[in-house]
Amino acid sequence: MARAGMTGSVLRRLLEAADYRLEDRPGGVRGIRSRDHRAVFLVEGVRSPVELEAEFPSDAVRRTLIYPEDPGSVARSIASERSMEVIDGATLGSALGEILLPGPEPVPSSEIETVATPAPLTPPPLLFPEGERTVRPRLGRADAEALAGVEGLRSTLRLIPYYIAAYRVRVATPSGARAPATDHLVAVQALTGAAEFWQPGERELIPEIDEPNQRLDPQISEDQSRTVAVEAVRRRHTVSVDHTEQHDGALVIERRRVPPAADDLAIGEPVLVHVPFWYIEGTDGRVVLDAVTGSRSPPPDREG
Q1: pLDDT digits (tens, 9 = 90+) for 185-212
Q2: Domain of 40: which CATH number?
Q3: Which of 8, 44, 103, 145 is the most exposed place for a label (fewest CB within 10 A)?
């Protein structure tokens, strides 16, 4: 029996490798996977879905008929009315991965309500030493000028304000479940409102910097920074989830963009810190260097 370029024996081996238990039946081969209650039936010849419905166990949550050839619109309509999926040789290739992929692990009945409606998250703590609100620069003046590589140098160290917030998030998984919560940091530049994400521990905070500097004041409020942070976090943790359905004999894969739900995101109160940047003027223009990472940046203030 050939299906979409593969023999029936190859298809059987694939199903067995995907943990389906196979049985030879009068109308074909039945495959049952108990862990996610998935069932498939490899149909021999052309048989009505009405005849084959009894082959599926009563607790099967997904039932698929695999025909060697297109069974026709009448058979597809009957199967659809009985919530059975129909796949033929022409559509098997695109559907095979979804059939073989393991479904979500079964959830004990005692935990179903907890998983279906998890408790809202609380934000993680953001612990800074008292009075330490300036990021320690790693590049001194000489290092920054050497990296800039411009002539006619005039260097200024500016401390740019950022609102930093810790947040906790649960994201959707391809199966539609929720992943475990993880903790992160979002930083909103308080002059332009641009958001970025920091790795915990990558910046050290100190009370002040000995190097002469210009400390700039925020141009946006804490409330504005929080709005920016929420939007940026939701974009960052939006995931693509594929949903497969059968419509009028065609297998349709719909890709949905799923952002974190309201109960799956918790952002703490923002804290204002200042981040050092070297502004190095040369005859060919100005270079701005992040004094922590050494990377070149666009001017992080509204004056350009």
Answers
A1: 999 999 999 999 998 888 889 998 999 9
A2: 3.40.1350
A3: 103
